[in-house]
Amino acid sequence: MARFRTRKDESSKPSYITPEGYRKLEEEAARLWSDERPKLTKAVAIAAAEGDRSENAEYIYGKKKLREVDQRLAFLSKRLDALTIVDSRPADESRVFFGAWVTLEDEDGELDTYRIVGPDETDLKQKHISVESPMAKALIGKREGDEVEVPRPKGDAYFVVEKVSFRAPEQG
Fold first, then answer.
1. Which pLDDT score, from 0 to 100, does residue 172 have?
2. Looking at 32, 52, 85, which one is the last position of a domain?
């Protein structure tokens, strides 16, 4: 069965990334190249030495995993070349821009802090949202005290910007 892309290939599309996000992608590429790939290559060689490759599940699985690692390495190489690292702060740090940590109050009075990052480093567990997301698009340029309307499929959501910072909040 052939696999088709669900999205167009944007690996060479220029995009922004934080220094931390870029470093994570570099570390992933280094780990794949220096740890994962050599282990898989060795496992495939050992499995190949066992004889009939057509019925050797370890060989077939190893080759498949090696192909996946090689594809990821090719993607990362191309992507790292296309990314633009944003490591400077904006002139007006009172407004929301790329890289900002933004604390929002929702309609129920709950506070949440999000960081606006590039699409390559989006991580909802860490509350890192893509600069291309509807939430980030609604926040860009806002200041503390501004009300923000975020379009959602189930109806618009409203937030108030409580705090804007370009320094990581204290982990606690």
1. 42
2. 85
Report pLDDT digits (tens) over 63-72.
999 999 999 9
The answer to whether residue 1 is domain-embedded is: no
* Threshold 0.85, pTM exceeds: no
Which segments in the chain show pLDDT lower than 50?
1-2, 5, 172
Structural domains of the chain, count: 2
**Dist CA 101 CA 168 (whole Å):** 7
If asked whether residues 56 and 117 sit together in one domain, one would say: no
**pLDDT, the chain, mean:** 89
What is the domain range of residue 125? Answer: 101-165
Q: Show which of 36, 59, 85 is a domain's final residue.
A: 85
